[in-house]
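Sequence only, no structure available. Ideas?
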Amino acid sequence: MVGGWRPQVGTSDRLAALLVGEPTADGLAYRGRVGSGVGPKQSRALTELLAPLTRPASPFADDVPRVDADGTVWVEPVVVVDVDTHGVGYERLRQPSYQGVRTDLTPEDL
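Reply:
I predicted one. Tokens follow.
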């Protein structure tokens, strides 16, 4: 689930990476930043999708590392995305790659 996005360096409106999490019993757990796979076309579509979901603070139940949080635009965690990753069983995603928005799933499905 998307909890925020980071703008491209030197801009404030071009999405470069998503901050994603996984629902847990304790709330939305931060799993990492996903920038690979987000090209110009995906960036524009994601920016339009996420713009009306902006919120003032992080939706994650745990702390987001400062290096990831700096400059982040926080959003309501209602958008589900497909992310390819190398490895499971880790707290953070390993080499994540954005694959697309999952319109067939809602947060309640996860």
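The beta strands are 2-7, 15-24, 27-34, 73-74, 81-84, 97-101.
Hope that gets you unstuck.
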